[in-house]
Amino acid sequence: MVDTDILLSVESLRATYNHTITALTDVSFSVKHGEIVALLGANGAGKTTTLKALSNLLPAERGQIVAGRIHFGAIDVTTASPAALVRAGLVQVLEGRHCFRTLTVEENLISGGLGRSATRSEITADLEKIYALFPRLKEKRRVTSGLTSGGEQQMTAIGRALMSRPRLLVLDEPSMGLAPLVVQDIFRTLRRLNEEERLSILVAEQNSAIALKYADRATILENGVTAINGAAADLRQRSEVQDLYLGRKTAASGHLAPLVPATNP
Ligand SMILES: Nc1ncnc2c1ncn2[C@@H]1O[C@H](COP(=O)(O)OP(=O)(O)OP(=O)(O)O)[C@@H](O)[C@H]1O
Q: Quick one: DSSP state of residue 261?
């Protein structure tokens, strides 16, 4: 039976690089309409590889999906181009932010709306929305992005993704290298977008504490395998999650026992 609540489904995904390095062995999770889902795991667990697979970006890095299924709505992601997926509403903010450093903040934002042939008034209205979400960007709109702070670049990258009006916003480690207050601010804004616009969000994070605070559900990857799919509130209470991912011990010291079978909930 097809679950119409599900926007993105990943089933038994297996992926390699160069046909030799197995990065993902068995990854399964889903994102329902209107949910925030966190994808967690230690360094090298497979978060970025999973996100790249969702936008069919692995071939650019000599990566291959060798088994499993990914559906974004009715679209089979494995047969769609990255550009077609963006047009369908699956939009990523890649790790490292990747602003156009020589363009101003506002030019960066506008570039996000170009792919959907928006009118000038639509672009202006969307810019105002983004400035309301991130007032810092309004102050900096005429500044060259390369001269703005890491937090402002992250906000610019998120704003640029929003300009293409995503149905699913995917973010890879938005907290990376940012001060805790800036990270709080960014996650609060993501929650606001989720609540006010019912934007569905998938966020890969090493900062499990902040991700579990703001997500509805979470998936924890260990060595390319889904170890747990569960409600974020439940995961926060589990002592082994606290030990391994919320700072009580290091992740290398143990493994998680599944809370629920590691399939789509
Ligand atoms: N371009 C690549 N070529 C070969 N192997 C890669 C490539 N990218 C990632 N890998 C390998 O795939 C595995 C998963 O890496 P991935 O970057 O997906 O993990 P991650 O959870 O995002 O880690 P991090 O949090 O450190 O970014 C690792 O063993 C990594 O070394």
A: -
pLDDT for 74 beyond 90: yes
Most confident of 4-8, 120-124, 140-144, 239-243: 140-144
pLDDT of res. 143: 96
In the chain, % helix, strand, coil (3-state, to 5) comes to: 40, 25, 30
Q: Which of 18, 40, 43, 49 to mutate to test the pocket of ligand 1 (most atoms within 8 A of CB)?
A: 49
117: left (phi over 0), alpha (psi -120 to 50) or beta: left
What pLDDT does 250 receive?
A: 47
Residue whose structure tokens are 């890879």: 172
**Domain edges within the chain:** 1-89+166-265, 98-163
Contacts of 117 (CB under 8 A, 6+ apart): none
Helices (H), 164-224: 180-197, 208-214
pLDDT number for residue 115: 72
- Please work out whether the CB of residue 41 comes within 6 Å of at least one atom of ligand 1: yes
Give the atom of ligand 1 at the shortest distance from the alpha carbon of 172.
Answer: 22
Task: Give CA–CA dist 82/224, Å, rounded.
Answer: 23
Joined together, the tokens standing for residue 239 give 């002592």
Q: Give the CATH class of 1-89+166-265.
A: alpha beta
Q: Judge contact between 164 and 112, C-beta under 8 A.
A: yes
Taking the C-alpha atoms of residue 142 and residue 150, their distance in angstroms, rounded to an integer, is 17
pLDDT top residue among 255 and 132: 132
ipTM over 0.95: yes
